[in-house]
Amino acid sequence: MLPLTEAEQRLLLRVARQALEERVGGDPSIASSSLPDTLCQPCGAFVTLHKAKRLRGCIGSIDLLAPLDETVRECAVAAALRDPRFEPVTPDELRALRIEISVLSPLVEASPDQVEVGRHGLLVSRGAQRGVLLPQVAVDWKWDRERFLEEACLKARLSADAWRSDAKLQTFTAQVFGEPSDLAFSSPHAA
């Protein structure tokens, strides 16, 4: 699946933006366009929403069950309306939101010493408890490998040192791209 071309990235960003306009903005008149086969293959993805360079929502799916375009559409809406850390996005906020998409590679089981900060995202799990951190999170927070592993464990609601014993570690890479931060939307249909 990776890497997507610049044209495919723009199409996925348009899919996410249109989903937000339809569900949050109440504009059902947006026509969807046909997509290349590469964007219709099952793939995991996260959609992150920023407002004034601050996180406004982030939801994703690491499972390879749905086509990438559907995953992006669903995650964009979920990031706007169902991220439990934030109030739902309002129609008035749509123009100020910047969309970032992380398209994920398949998961690979890993040992702690195989985790590379800046390259790998991390899924830590034990039973039904799971915590996911994207590769850019460790870089943004300037974490070393051990801190990255601890934070992923905490996100899974495990002890910070669960990665040393019985937690399962899986890594993935991500192709991350987004709308320009200075993008001005002249209309709800801007692409």
Give keywords.
2 domains, 4 helices, single chain, globular, Dna Ligase, domain 1, 26% helix, alpha+beta, four-stranded antiparallel sheet, Glycoprotein, Type 4 Pilin, disordered C terminus, 8 strands, 191 residues
Can you summarize this structure?
This protein is an alpha+beta fold. The protein contains 4 helices and 8 strands.
Can you walk me through this structure?
The structure is a single chain. This protein is of the alpha+beta class and 191 residues long. The chain has two domains: 6-29 and 36-105, Hypothetical protein ph0010, domain 1 (Glycoprotein, Type 4 Pilin), CATH 3.30.700.20; 108-172, Dna Ligase, domain 1. Helix content is 26%, strand content 24%. A four-stranded antiparallel beta sheet has the order 2-1-3-8, with helices on one face. Strands 4-7-5-6 form a four-stranded antiparallel beta sheet. Helix 1 crosses helix 2. It is globular.
